[in-house]
Amino acid sequence: MDGHYPFELPPLPYSYHALEPYIDSETMRLHHDKHFGAYVENLNRALEKLPAYHHWPLTRLIRENGGLPFQLQTAVWNNAGGVYNHDLYFRILGKPGEKSAPGPLSKAIETAYGSFENFEEHLKQSALSQFGSGYAWLVSDRRGRLKIVTTLNQGTPLPRGFHPILLVDVWEHAYYLRYRNRRAEYLDAFFHVLNYTEAENNYLACITRPSGNKTTKTRSE
What is the 3-state secondary structure of 68-116? Predict the structure, then answer.
């Protein structure tokens, strides 16, 4: 998603029960319709009376947050991040057992981490170490080199110049109905529904995009 105001809640790319038994349908309804939907509504509300920014795409609102009017920065940072992060999260999930064919992302993961198993363990440990709410990400730099990073709350890696490949949501609303405080169990389940085909598409978009983006003023997390 990189549209502009007014933003709309995209439909879930699959049915609410498609990720069973790993992520339950009630969690999917609440997470997508209520939580994701609230970020969309709140972002539109924050921008409603500021038409000068209605043409700014979502990623610009995040990357150039520090250039917005001061009274708008926090609301846009939180809600634009919430829209971006949730859009990516729901897109990189899919039906259990769907794996992509080997491609550039597979090779990059094996180069960086030795194997998919090692990568998934590194991502899991990063997600476990994230104190409170936030995300663990697999990102790429402009040369296609991979890195695992974490962000607090609704922060994103965009202001740091990284291209997101995939992420795991460790806000409690993403897993608490089924897993309660057992974050590690949720993370093990997450890898059963991780759509590596979509992650591969994100990586290909990164390594084929033009370079030379200008440095912009950003808000630190």
Answer: CCHHHHHHHHHHHHHHHHHHHHHHCECCCCCCCCCCHHHHHHHHHHCCH
What does the pLDDT look like over 101-128, one tens digit per residue? 579 999 999 999 999 999 999 999 999 9
Whole-angstrom distance, CA of residue 37 vs CA of residue 206: 27
Q: 201 and 100 in contact (C-beta within 8 Å)?
A: no
Q: Specify the residue for token string 């969690």.
A: 27
Name 35's Cβ contacts closer than 8 Å, sequence gap at least 6. Answer: 82, 86, 173
SS3 content of the chain, % helix, strand, coil (to 5): 50, 10, 40
Helices (H), the chain: 25-29, 37-47, 58-63, 70-91, 104-113, 116-129, 176-179, 183-190, 196-208
pTM above 0.85, yes or no: yes
Burial 57-92 (b: 16+ CB within 10 A, else e): ebebbbbbbeebeeebeeebbbbbbbbbbbbbbbbb
Over its C-alpha atoms, the chain yields an Rg (Å, rounded) of 17
- Compute the half-sphere exposure of residue 99: CA atoms within 13 Å on the CB side of its CA: 7
For 46-72, the pLDDT digits (tens) are 999 999 999 999 999 999 999 999 999
